[in-house]
Amino acid sequence: MKKSDKPVDPSRRKILKGVSAGIVGAYSITPKLNAKNLPQDISDSIEGKVKLTLTVNGKKISKGIKPNTTLAEFIREELHLTGTKLVCNQGECGSCTVFMDGNAVYSCHLLALDADGTDVLTIEGLLDKDELHSIQQSFVDEDGLQCGFCTPGQIMSAYALLKNNSNPTDEEIKKECLVIYADAAHIPKYLIPLKMQ
Question: Fewer CB within a 10 Å sphere, N or C end of the chain?
Fold first, then answer.
């Protein structure tokens, strides 16, 4: 019987030696292969990211994100636009309001991937170089803010309302914009800036 005709009897030791040699060999030829050294799309794929493309404040952005990232998290953490506030993180208070394709949306309650292909405007996008938007200036002039933390959401809600209705009634303002307000004493101070537009 020739050596090649002999049945193969792999011992546990031979299998372990072969596997170990394969692991060591593979590791030694790819020591620098990690997600940071790969092209961005491959790196994102390895990290479980999905490509998101949208326009924010007039600038087209394309970036890999994790599928469970909310629009608010994307705006704050990836784009470093911190005017959009995260307060309730349940889509109830409105402090995270942004303007998306002509509508006010609660960005904490919307996955960033749902904004793919859209046009998003944040509070920072209302600025014209160093000039405040007229709504922002009205809030400053009429003291239409409380502590200021949720003011960006209030201003974005007001912006959305005025974009769709240039002459709202007090009732329309209360219905559309005062979700954010918990303090009824400030309602008159909120109505004045919107009436000045």
Answer: N
pLDDT attached to residue 196 = 59
Residue 165: its pLDDT value, please? 85
SS3 assignment, position 175 = helix
Does the domain at 49-195 match CATH 1.10.10.60? Answer given as no
Are 103 and 160 contacting, i.e. CB atoms less than 8 angstroms apart? yes
Q: Which two tokens stand for residue 157?
A: 């809600």
Return the number of other C-beta atoms located less than 10 Å from residue 126's C-beta: 20
Whether residue 110 contacts residue 133, with contact meaning beta carbons closer than 8 Å, is answered with no
Q: State the DSSP string of 45-83.
A: HHTT-EEEEEEETTEEEEEEE-TT-BHHHIIIIIS--TT
What are the contacts of 82-89 at 24+ separation with CB within 8 A?
A: 83/122, 83/123, 83/124, 83/152, 84/122, 84/123, 84/152, 84/153, 85/149, 85/150, 85/152, 85/153, 87/149, 87/150
Angstrom distance (rounded) from CA 157 to CA 179 = 9
Query: What pLDDT digit, counting tens, does each position of 42-76 carry?
Result: 666 667 889 999 999 999 999 999 999 999 999 99
- Reported as type and span, the H/E element at residue 97 is strand 97-100
pTM for the full model?
0.71
